[in-house]
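ARCHIVE RECORD
Type: protein–small molecule complex
Small molecule: adenosine-5'-diphosphate
Source of inputs: curated submission
Record status: active
Notes field left blank by submitter.
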Amino acid sequence: MQSIIQVENLSKVYKTGFQALKSVSLDIRKGEIFALLGPNGAGKTTLISIICGIVNPTSGRVTADGHDILRDYRQARAKIGLVPQELTTDAFESVWNTVTFSRGLFGKAANPAFIEKILKDLSLWDKKDSRIMRLSGGMKRRVMIAKALAHEPSILFLDEPTAGVDVTLRRDMWNLVRELRANGATIILTTHYIEEAEEMADRVGVINKGELILVEEKATLMKKLGKKRLTLELAEKLDRVPDALAPFNLAIGEGGTTLTYSYDTNAERTGITRLLQGLSEAGIRFRDLDTEQSSLEDIFVSLVSG
Ligand SMILES: Nc1ncnc2c1ncn2[C@@H]1O[C@H](COP(=O)(O)OP(=O)(O)O)[C@@H](O)[C@H]1O
Ligand SMILES: [Mg+2]
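STRUCTURE (tokenized, with ligand):
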């Protein structure tokens, strides 16, 4: 498949001496939705800020649609729309003027019909004359998307698009992203929600402490991530796991009052029925139980150590 963004051995050391990216190499394929997944501070914003020409790389090279982002900045940037993590826009301007102005910045001829379509797609049409400072947080975020789309970019970056947004906006955002992709755009989004990567992405990259530790088709990754934990709150304190239960690799919690079992949700058998049977036979009673998805933290630990 044709690649549209090429990142080669990209490193970033900030003025503070902190190394935010460590020799990252990555190809984004034309027309895909790529999710960059990683915890806070992993380097997601740094990476996309470099690709979008906002932050200078310390070393390495990036091309967007064949244009070097440093040497051919204007051509490269013209292809790219960026919805930043932080809302940054002129509070006193109207929605219409802000979005129209953004298009002009890229030297594109005025196209009111196109701006109208974007605003309608984003449910902003009835707010077109409102000053941005009068809008709700969700509406402001829609304006940021409209601004990013105003010059008809073929590559769209969304930095944590749904962090702290309500369910309606999240759903609208996801639908919009799918529609843009259907029209041929390439989309890169960053997130620290596994669910979001699962819902949206064709491929997922996992970044941790400035290192891209894995890039994989979503379907393959979801298999690796499909681990859950069952925690049993015991009726009586337990000193050690009975030998008969050894195959379950149970972990006793601190104080001996909980037992935790990890299982694979994709497996044909989770083993839960046999576990509960085994507990009953061993005379271990429990008061309550709880299941939870493995956290991103756990996955990183298992990825890094594995
Ligand atoms: N301008 C800066 N100066 C110094 N350190 C920075 C700067 N911007 C980001 N960092 C640090 O770089 C690391 C990665 O930040 P960032 O790319 O924003 O991560 P993410 O978007 O994954 O949360 C963090 O530890 C952050 O504190
Ligand atoms: Mg960030």
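CURATOR ANNOTATION: The longest strand covers residues 3-13.
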